[in-house]
Task: structure prediction
Amino acid sequence: MTTPLIAVTGATGQLGGRLAFRLAAAGAAQRLIVRDPARAPELAGASVAVAQGYTDGAGMRSALEGADTLFLVSGRESADRVAEHRSAIDAAVHAGVSRIVYVSFLGAGPKATFTFARDHWATEEYIRSTGLRFTFLRDNLYFAMMPHLVGADGVIRGPAGDGRAAAVAHDDIADVATAVLLDEREHVHDGATYDVTGPEALSMTEFAAHLTRATGRQITYVPETIPEAYASRADYDAPLFEVDGWVTSYTAIAAGDLAAVSPTVRILTNREPESFATWLDLNPQEWAHLRR
Result:
């Protein structure tokens, strides 16, 4: 019997890379889809295929040939991200892939407060339209982004008010993805949408307090109004869609959209998810820049 082949996108990134190591440890057959083969990890049971992004239709079709499942990490934020996702999905259909496990976002919907979550909803709908088997992993914000919200003055600024977010560690998402991909109970996760969160919902003030403890430097949160948030980001000279995403990540917190704590990690991995405090202790390289 042929072992089903899992195609992993983002294999040189924070999530796809973690997943690839877990699949290798489990003895799974996988194909790592990367832009630069020199950066691909060397893992038992893993082959490497090159595609220059999701819009490289020929590259993606070739990379997916013979794969049973596509693990689709969402592309970087761009004005054309949904079109990029559709291109990758079309390649999967053309190559005969039977299942897509897609990394989406909590609360994905056409009217989501967080504008990037609307892209995820559009991608989910397109996957549904293909008739392929699918599973959606709707992640909360990543712990890894929190240290990078801190300005040079030690202040996190944004219109989150006193709202809360149940942010999550990449390791927990990778463990959930591994459980879904390798579950031997046939079709048990087909059509499922799993919210993937950390164990608690924290306010931005509480995130700042945890960062203060870890770094030994005073980190604070200063709430902004929405006009103040746009004004304070004007110097980045970023396109409007990107600024909208930055600002609405905070307003989604203020609206309570990211506060729900899900049992997914516990149910699918049989352990509790990492807390932000634990994540900080285990990943000092992620916030080392705050000490400088």
Notes: Residues 115-130 form the longest helix (16 residues).
